[in-house]
Protein backbone atom coordinates (compact mmCIF):
# COMPACT_ATOMS: atom_id res chain seq x y z
CA UNK A 1 0.00 0.00 0.00
CA UNK A 2 1.22 3.47 -0.88
CA UNK A 3 1.54 6.07 1.89
CA UNK A 4 1.00 9.74 1.03
CA UNK A 5 2.28 12.29 3.52
CA UNK A 6 0.34 15.47 4.29
CA UNK A 7 1.50 18.15 6.71
CA UNK A 8 -0.67 21.00 7.97
CA UNK A 9 -0.80 23.68 10.67
CA UNK A 10 -4.03 24.12 12.68
CA UNK A 11 -5.50 26.33 15.37
CA UNK A 12 -7.29 25.20 18.53
CA UNK A 13 -9.68 27.89 19.75
CA UNK A 14 -11.61 26.53 22.75
CA UNK A 15 -14.05 28.57 24.82
CA UNK A 16 -16.86 27.64 27.20
CA UNK A 17 -16.76 23.95 26.31
CA UNK A 18 -16.90 24.63 22.56
CA UNK A 19 -14.27 24.25 19.86
CA UNK A 20 -14.12 26.60 16.89
CA UNK A 21 -14.50 24.49 13.74
CA UNK A 22 -15.04 24.89 10.04
CA UNK A 23 -17.24 22.71 7.87
CA UNK A 24 -15.33 20.87 5.15
CA UNK A 25 -16.84 20.90 1.68
CA UNK A 26 -14.41 18.60 -0.13
CA UNK A 27 -11.84 15.89 0.43
CA UNK A 28 -11.84 12.96 2.83
CA UNK A 29 -13.25 15.10 5.66
CA UNK A 30 -16.09 16.66 3.65
CA UNK A 31 -19.32 17.38 5.52
CA UNK A 32 -17.47 17.05 8.83
CA UNK A 33 -16.23 19.47 11.43
CA UNK A 34 -12.55 20.30 10.98
CA UNK A 35 -10.02 22.69 12.49
CA UNK A 36 -9.10 25.96 10.82
CA UNK A 37 -5.71 25.54 9.21
CA UNK A 38 -3.99 23.85 6.32
CA UNK A 39 -0.88 23.43 4.22
CA UNK A 40 2.15 25.67 4.04
CA UNK A 41 2.87 27.76 0.98
CA UNK A 42 6.39 28.10 -0.45
CA UNK A 43 8.84 29.83 1.96
CA UNK A 44 6.14 30.15 4.63
CA UNK A 45 6.93 29.35 8.27
CA UNK A 46 4.57 27.49 10.56
CA UNK A 47 3.17 30.58 12.30
CA UNK A 48 2.75 32.41 8.98
CA UNK A 49 0.75 29.44 7.71
CA UNK A 50 -1.34 29.43 10.88
CA UNK A 51 -2.13 33.16 10.62
CA UNK A 52 -2.98 33.00 6.91
CA UNK A 53 -5.11 29.85 7.08
CA UNK A 54 -7.09 30.96 10.13
CA UNK A 55 -7.80 34.34 8.52
CA UNK A 56 -8.80 32.71 5.21
CA UNK A 57 -11.12 30.18 6.84
CA UNK A 58 -12.67 32.25 9.64
CA UNK A 59 -12.27 35.89 8.59
CA UNK A 60 -10.62 36.67 11.96
CA UNK A 61 -7.02 37.62 12.69
CA UNK A 62 -5.09 35.94 15.45
CA UNK A 63 -4.71 37.84 18.69
CA UNK A 64 -2.22 35.28 19.99
CA UNK A 65 -0.92 31.76 19.50
CA UNK A 66 1.03 29.44 21.79
CA UNK A 67 1.84 25.86 22.79
CA UNK A 68 2.90 24.22 19.51
CA UNK A 69 2.69 20.42 19.40
CA UNK A 70 2.65 17.64 16.79
CA UNK A 71 0.23 14.75 16.28
CA UNK A 72 -0.36 12.32 13.44
CA UNK A 73 -3.02 10.02 12.07
CA UNK A 74 -3.13 7.46 9.28
CA UNK A 75 -6.30 7.61 7.20
CA UNK A 76 -7.20 5.00 4.60
CA UNK A 77 -10.37 5.86 2.71
CA UNK A 78 -12.79 3.02 2.12
CA UNK A 79 -11.94 1.33 -1.20
CA UNK A 80 -8.64 3.17 -1.77
CA UNK A 81 -5.27 1.41 -2.18
CA UNK A 82 -3.36 4.18 -0.41
CA UNK A 83 -3.35 5.79 3.01
CA UNK A 84 -2.63 9.37 4.02
CA UNK A 85 -0.22 9.95 6.89
CA UNK A 86 -1.61 13.28 8.14
CA UNK A 87 0.94 15.09 10.30
CA UNK A 88 -0.48 18.10 12.11
CA UNK A 89 1.02 20.96 14.07
CA UNK A 90 -1.49 22.31 16.60
CA UNK A 91 -1.32 25.75 18.22
CA UNK A 92 -3.62 27.16 20.87
CA UNK A 93 -5.06 30.32 19.37
CA UNK A 94 -7.03 33.37 20.47
CA UNK A 95 -8.92 35.21 17.75
CA UNK A 96 -9.35 38.97 17.61
CA UNK A 97 -13.15 39.09 17.88
CA UNK A 98 -13.02 42.80 18.74
CA UNK A 99 -11.61 43.61 15.33
CA UNK A 100 -13.78 43.54 12.26
CA UNK A 101 -14.32 40.13 10.73
CA UNK A 102 -12.83 40.30 7.28
CA UNK A 103 -14.75 39.09 4.30
CA UNK A 104 -13.96 35.50 3.49
CA UNK A 105 -11.95 35.06 0.29
CA UNK A 106 -13.93 34.58 -2.92
CA UNK A 107 -12.86 30.93 -3.13
CA UNK A 108 -14.72 30.29 0.16
CA UNK A 109 -17.79 32.18 -1.00
CA UNK A 110 -17.98 30.55 -4.43
CA UNK A 111 -17.34 27.03 -3.10
CA UNK A 112 -13.95 26.47 -4.76
CA UNK A 113 -12.27 26.32 -1.35
CA UNK A 114 -12.52 23.13 0.71
CA UNK A 115 -14.07 24.81 3.75
CA UNK A 116 -17.13 26.85 4.63
CA UNK A 117 -19.03 28.08 7.68
CA UNK A 118 -17.37 28.75 10.99
CA UNK A 119 -19.15 27.05 13.89
CA UNK A 120 -18.66 26.59 17.63
CA UNK A 121 -19.17 22.91 18.48
CA UNK A 122 -19.52 21.48 22.01
CA UNK A 123 -16.80 18.84 22.33
CA UNK A 124 -19.25 16.24 23.64
CA UNK A 125 -21.09 16.40 20.29
CA UNK A 126 -17.99 15.51 18.25
CA UNK A 127 -17.89 11.92 16.99
CA UNK A 128 -16.13 9.91 14.30
CA UNK A 129 -19.34 10.28 12.28
CA UNK A 130 -19.31 14.10 12.19
CA UNK A 131 -15.70 15.19 12.82
CA UNK A 132 -12.31 14.91 11.15
CA UNK A 133 -9.46 12.99 12.80
CA UNK A 134 -7.92 16.39 13.65
CA UNK A 135 -10.98 17.40 15.66
CA UNK A 136 -11.00 14.00 17.37
CA UNK A 137 -7.34 14.51 18.39
CA UNK A 138 -8.19 17.98 19.73
CA UNK A 139 -11.18 16.56 21.63
CA UNK A 140 -9.01 13.88 23.29
CA UNK A 141 -6.45 16.52 24.22
CA UNK A 142 -9.08 18.92 25.61
CA UNK A 143 -10.58 16.12 27.72
CA UNK A 144 -7.14 15.39 29.18
CA UNK A 145 -6.48 12.20 27.23
CA UNK A 146 -4.10 13.18 24.44
CA UNK A 147 -3.42 10.28 22.10
CA UNK A 148 0.31 10.56 21.56
CA UNK A 149 0.61 7.44 19.43
CA UNK A 150 -0.47 7.61 15.81
CA UNK A 151 -4.15 6.80 15.41
CA UNK A 152 -5.22 4.73 12.39
CA UNK A 153 -8.57 5.03 10.65
CA UNK A 154 -9.05 2.11 8.26
CA UNK A 155 -11.96 2.12 5.83
CA UNK A 156 -12.62 5.84 6.50
CA UNK A 157 -15.96 6.75 4.99
CA UNK A 158 -16.23 9.99 3.06
CA UNK A 159 -19.65 11.55 3.59
CA UNK A 160 -21.05 12.11 0.12
CA UNK A 161 -23.93 14.42 0.91
CA UNK A 162 -25.12 16.69 3.62
CA UNK A 163 -28.76 16.98 4.61
CA UNK A 164 -28.34 20.48 6.02
CA UNK A 165 -26.56 19.48 9.21
CA UNK A 166 -23.23 17.90 9.80
Q: Would you give an account of this structure?
A:
By secondary structure, the protein is α+β, with helices and mostly antiparallel strands. It has one domain: Nucleoside Triphosphate Pyrophosphohydrolase (Alpha-Beta Complex), CATH 3.90.79. It contains 3 helices and 9 strands; from the N terminus they run βββββαββαβαβ. The protein has helices at residues 46-58, 106-109, 133-142, and strands at residues 2-12, 14-15, 18-24, 33-34, 37-38, 62-77, 82-95, 115-122, 151-156. The strands form 2 sheets. A 5-stranded mixed β-sheet has the order 5-1-7-6-9. A hairpin with a 2-residue loop joins β2 (14-15) and β3. The radius of gyration is 15 Å and the shape is globular. 30% of the residues are buried.
Summary of the model, kept short:
The chain contains 3 helices and 9 strands; from the N terminus they run E-E-E-E-E-H-E-E-H-E-H-E.
Features:
166 residues, five-stranded mixed β-sheet, four-stranded antiparallel β-sheet, 3 helices, 41% strand
Query: CATH homologous superfamily?
Result: Nucleoside Triphosphate Pyrophosphohydrolase
Level of helix content? 10-25%
Strand order of the largest sheet: 5-1-7-6-9
CATH class: Alpha Beta
SSE sequence, one letter per element: EEEEEHEEHEHE
What's the story with the biggest beta sheet? 5 strands, mixed
Task: Tell me which CATH architecture applies here.
Answer: Alpha-Beta Complex
Shape: globular
Poorly predicted runs: none
What would you call the structural class?
alpha+beta
Radius of gyration: 15 Å
CATH topology term: Nucleoside Triphosphate Pyrophosphohydrolase
Strand portion, in percent?
A: 35-45%
